[in-house]
Design a protein that fits this description.
By secondary structure, the protein is α/β, with parallel strands linked by helices. It contains 12 helices and 9 strands. The chain folds into 3 domains: 1-155, no CATH class; 160-231; 235-357, Roll (CBS-domain). 57% of the residues lie in helices and 14% in strands. Strand 1 and strand 2 form a beta hairpin. Bound molecules: zinc ion. Residues 59, 63, 105, 154, 162 line the site of zinc ion (ZN).
Length: 362
């Protein structure tokens, strides 16, 4: 995500924080200053939010480490003002596994709340909850209450909340995955409408959450719709057979000519009949900036790249494309280059597919 800074690395997962998160902190510090007017109030307020976000990182780690047990890696965790996002490479296909991954996050917050509760009881620090406001009362007790709130909020049965995934996984035990997603997304959007309606009367912040839920539900539904449209199609259906290749000894000028002459932006690089690398548009631009048009393709091509087999399911290829953030995949048949696939080919195929089916897909 742009405008994010790497904060730390935990259990092999990079944790990023988004710039808007600092705006939230600044806004909170300012509002505490305006209300209380003392530095200690500002520090206590900001400190509380930081402690809360530590709990949110632990929540995301709950998802990430449970997913790891099923062999799914997490690209990164990003902290946003609305909470955290763990970018898993994919969701488990088995609904029981998805259920566990989705529940692991809120379970972490419940566990934190239980530990804090035990501590407060044991240390006589417990104050009856009705005497506590968001800004008053013992720090640890407020943290306990907020953790329960985070767990409860995340269990709302709507995408992109964990509860949406829990609902989908529960439905998917009884029906097929695409249908379960459609039903869960529709319920989520219904909930978003209800939240938005309440927001009009109670708190405008609910409107913001409603919008967030609405968009999340629509995104999840369309991602799964794409997958189910691709189901059963092999890579060869989306493969480009008519394409240009380069040789390591070619100049970048030739790559520029080919780019301008056609619609291809990334090129397989061949040494005779063998595939030696891939020159992506990013690599080309980098080369042009550093050494100009006369530099050789071989210097700027990627030597490590993903390849696909001609019979591989498109669905798994799409997952790999997204997970590795790669533009072009050479398709191999019996060890030789048979074609190329990129995200554009797949999206064209989907458009054609949905036109043929007579229904829209965004
Ligand atoms: Zn979560």
């Amino acid at each position: 995500m742009k405008w994010s800074w790497k904060l730390t690395r935990i259990a092999g997962i990079d944790v990023y924080v988004h710039a808007t998160f600092f705006m939230l902190l600044a806004w909170l510090a300012l509002s505490y200053w305006l209300v209380a007017g003392t530095l200690s109030a500002v520090l206590a307020g900001v400190g509380f939010i930081l402690a809360l976000f530590v709990c949110i990182v632990l929540h995301e780690l709950g998802h990430a480490l449970t997913a790891r047990r099923y062999g799914i890696r997490t690209r990164h965790i990003t902290l946003l003002p609305i909470g955290g996002v763990a970018s898993l490479e994919r969701m488990p296909r088995d609904p029981r596994q998805e259920l566990r991954v989705a529940l692991a996050g809120p379970a972490v917050n419940v566990a934190i709340a239980l530990v804090l509760w035990g501590w407060l009881r044991a240390s006589n620090g417990w104050v009856p909850p009705e005497q506590i406001g968001l800004a008053g009362g013992p720090f640890l007790e407020r943290l306990m209450i907020v953790n329960l709130f985070v767990a409860g909020f995340n269990l709302l049965p709507a995408f992109p909340m964990d509860g949406g995934r829990v609902l989908r996984a529960a439905l998917a035990l009884r029906m097929d995955y695409a249908k379960a997603t459609r039903v869960a997304a529709r319920l989520g959007q219904g909930l978003a409408l209800a939240l938005g309606f309440l927001g009009l009367f109670i708190n405008p912040f609910l409107l913001f959450i409603a919008l967030f839920v609405w968009i999340g539900a629509a995104a999840e539904a369309s991602a799964v719709q794409i997958k189910s449209a691709l189901a059963g199609m092999p890579v060869s259906r989306a493969m480009l057979k008519d394409f240009s290749t380069l040789a390591p000894g070619d100049t970048l000028a030739r790559a520029v000519d080919l780019t301008l002459a056609g619609s291809q932006k990334d090129f397989p690089v061949m040494t005779g009949e063998t595939l030696a690398g891939v020159l992506t548009q990013t690599g080309l631009l980098k080369g042009l900036r550093a050494h100009g048009e006369r530099a050789q393709v071989g210097e700027f091509m990627q030597r490590e790249f993903e390849t696909a087999g001609i019979d591989e399911p498109l669905e798994t290829l799409l997952e790999r494309l997204q997970a590795h953030d790669c533009r072009l995949v050479p398709v191999m048949r019996a060890g030789r280059l048979a074609g190329i696939v990129n995200l554009d080919n797949i999206s064209e195929l989907l458009q054609i597919h949905s036109a043929l089916q007579g229904k829209g897909m965004s």
